[in-house]
Each structure stands twice: as C-alpha cells, then as structure tokens.
Amino acid sequence: MIEFAGVHVRLGRRDVLRGVTARLTERRIGVVGANGSGKSTLARLINGLALPTSGTVTVRGMDTRRHAAKIRREVGFVFTDPDAQIVMPTVAEDVAFSLRRRGVPKDEVDRRVHEVLTRYGLADHADQPAHHLSGGEKQLLALCAVLVLEPAVLVMDEPTTLLDLRHSRMITGILRELPQQVVVVTHDLPLLADFDRVLVLDGGTIVADADPATAIDHYRNLLS
Amino acid sequence: MTDLTGVYVPGDSPLHRLPAGAKLLGLLLACTALVLLGSPVALGVAAVVVALLYVVSGVGAAAAWAQLRPLRWFAAALFALQFLIAGPATAIAVTLRVVLAVALAGLVTLTTRSSVMMASLERFLSPLRHVGVDPFRLSLLLSLTLRSVPVVAALAARVREAQKARGVERSLRAFAVPLVVGVLRHADALGEALSARGLDD
Q1: Which of A143, B25, B89, B110 is at 20 to 30 A from A213, Cα to Cα?
Q2: What contacts A141, CB < 8 A, 6 or more positions away?
Q3: How far apart are CA B77 and CA B128, in angstroms?
Q4: How far is B32 from B28, CA to CA, in rounded Å?
Q5: Does the distance separating the beta carbons of A83 and B7 come in below 8 Å?
Q6: Which of A84, A86, A129 sits opposite B7 (nearest CB)?
Q7: What's the Cα-to-Cα distance from B140 to each of A62, A97, B65, B134, B191, rounded to whole Å?
Q8: Model pLDDT, residue A38
Q9: What was the ipTM of the complex prediction?
C-alpha cells in the first residue's frame, strides 16, 4: 500500500504539490494531469526520488524519508526517456547491472537476465549495443531492467510518450499481465481504460479520484 | 552511428576467451613497447601484428574501421605537423604509435564485455576499499563513459539537424549551447536513474 498524508512539495518558489492525501491499495492506478500539474513529482515521491517538504509518504509501511534505500528495493521506476535509464553498453549487461549491485550470484544473474529478456522478446538482442535498439525496444529494456529485480511496486512516468502505436500497445499488454502494484503517470488515456483507479491532478492537488471512465471525463472537462 | 571504442562484438576467438585482466596488462605492455620502438620498420611490423590480432579476433573489418575512423583527421594533422617539424621518419613513427595504441585499446573493448571489464577493474581496485574508495563506483564510471559516447553523439546529431533546419549551421553558439544543456540534462536524468536503480543504497 502507498499512502500520501498531507503531502506538500515546494520547489524553489513553486508549490508543486499542495496537501495531497491518498491511500493507494488497488493493483493498477493511473495518474493524469496537464503539464506542470505535479503528477511526475507524485510518482517520484513513491520511491524517494523526491521528498515531501511537509507531510509523509509511506510505501508498505515505510516512510520514504527514513527508508529510501529499502523502498527503492521494493519500488521499481521506469522513466519517460529510456536513454537516461540505460547505464550499460549492451542489453544483457544493463539488465544484469542492478542484480550485480545486489550481490546476486553470477549463475542466477545470467538465468534471470535470460528469462526476462526472453519473456519480453529481447533475447535476440542480448549482446547488442543498447543504443542500436529502437525507441520502443529501449523502453522494453528499461522495463526489463526493473522487472528483473521483481519489485513489489512498479512506477512508470509517461512510459508510452516516446513510443509508436505498436510498442505503446505492447506496454499496455505487459501492464495488464503484471502481478505487481503499478502506478502509471501518463497522457495516454486509452492506456488507463481498464485500470482500477485514476487520479486527476490539477495545480498540485487531486481534483478527481475515481474509476477510469469517470476520472477521464473529469479530466477532459477540466481541459476543455 | 560510430561505435567509438567500446562496443563488445560477441565471439569465441582466443582473444575473446582471454581474461580481461590479461588483456589489459597486455595492452599496457604493448603500448609501452610502441613507445620504445623507434624505427618506422619496427612499427610497420607492429602494425602487421595488430592487423593479425584483429583477424584472429574475428570482429570484422567494419568494427575495426569504426575504432580508427574517428581518429583519421587527428592522425592526418599529427602526421603533417610532425612531417614539417621532424621529417618523414618521425612523422610515420609518431602517427603509427598513436593509431596502433588506439587500435589495440579498441580491440580489447571489442573482445571484452564491459561487465567483465568492470569486474576485473573492481578486483584490481579492491585494495582501495581500505581507504574508503568503492571500486564498484570507479568501474561504473568506465561503463558510463562508454555508454555516454553514443548518447552524446546522437544529441550532437540532433542539434546539428536543428541548426540546419533554422539555417544557423555556421553558428558555434547555436551548436554548443543546446549540446551542453542537453548533456547536462542527460547527466541529471542519469543520476536520478542510478538512484532509482539503488546505486545510492
């Protein structure tokens, strides 16, 4: 469970989030909002990449302010631009990177890397340079690098923004199958169609919190 | 895109099978020998040896050329300068030394996975743990450098295209400012991604 309690985030002179309170228990949760509404900051709060100026964020009972390292082991994060997330030169090495850092034995690293690359259709690219992949394949690689760690929660910040329709649909299909709790910040409204819950942010506050159809209607009205 | 020094080419050659530490030590010895070799004839023999090593590695001509291609203008300028200052024999020797050293370094990275290189470097640096240095972070630095080359090259290509589109391709400022801003943004995002992947645990 993820809980925001009276969360306020101030960056410079700007209040990015203002008094956000929510308890997220559903399996798939979407977050929508106009640019600058605070949705990416909300996502970053979940694994401690951003910290609240006041209020608390807890993930599975742990305060992000005090247990950032533990929380990052439980919460995987996928960024909009996979190029910023891929840190190793080849596909397999990038997926193996985080496992190595956690001291997983080499044989198990190899097995888990092969397994996740096969599951998401990247096994043939294992030894290829990551920068030779297409944008969609890079996003899949970024996802593999997170999922290989088997996080309890997956947070994705606009994962389909840079993708074509085919890869966007692929990500949608993957999200449907994942057993983890997933929080997705997005402008891609069809992606959220069968989610369990959608939050709408505006001006740093939650202005709607409902099922996808109701929340997206509210969002469309807000922007019209 | 140019694969400037450092993209592993899978293979099963003797060079691929050689431990990374041995290759790095060999590179060090070979570069020292290149400095000590004085005559163009001896360096010519060294060039043949390097070419044979590339053949043995089986990485292919394209990968080999990709190691040297970025060096071509620098090598030409170096040769011309040395030719004017010290004559043809020195110009050939100095230029060959640089080109062969780069080719050998390229061969090591082409036949060694960067994770294996990192592990080897970590072992080599492990005594530094006693003075508070994390060998993993140092070896990661090497990997990030290799990984950042194509990212920055792609960014530079995008900036060049944008310059052309706006008709300011001769402006150094129009090239440098967005490139520097882009590189800094990338560095910032990379730092955040490393945190998200647990590097600051």
Answers
A1: A143
A2: A82, A86, A91, A94, A95, A122, A130, A133
A3: 40
A4: 6
A5: no
A6: A129
A7: 30, 10, 27, 10, 12
A8: 93
A9: 0.74
Neighbours of A193 (CB within 10 A): 12
Residue reference for tokens 């080599």? B124
Q: How far apart are CA B200 and CA A148, in angstroms?
A: 19
Please give the order of strands across the beta sheet that includes A181-185: A75-78, A153-157, A181-185, A28-33, A197-202, A205-210
Whether A96 has its CB under 8 Å from any CB of chain B: the answer is yes
Give DSSP secondary structure letters for A1-50.
-EEEEEEEEEETTEEEEEEEEEEE-SSEEEEEE-TTSSHHHHHHHHTTSS
Decide if B113 touches A, using CB distance below 8 A: yes
Q: What is the DSSP string of A122-146?
A: -GGGTTSBGGGS-HHHHHHHHHHHH
pLDDT in tens, A36-66: 899 999 999 998 889 999 999 999 999 999 9
Q: Mark the ranges of chain B whose per-residue pLDDT is less than 70.
A: 1-6, 200-201
- Min Cα distance A139 → chain B (Å) is 13
Q: What is the DSSP letter of A53?
A: S
Rounded alpha-carbon distances, angstroms, from residue B170 to A112, B73, B163, B167: 50, 20, 8, 8
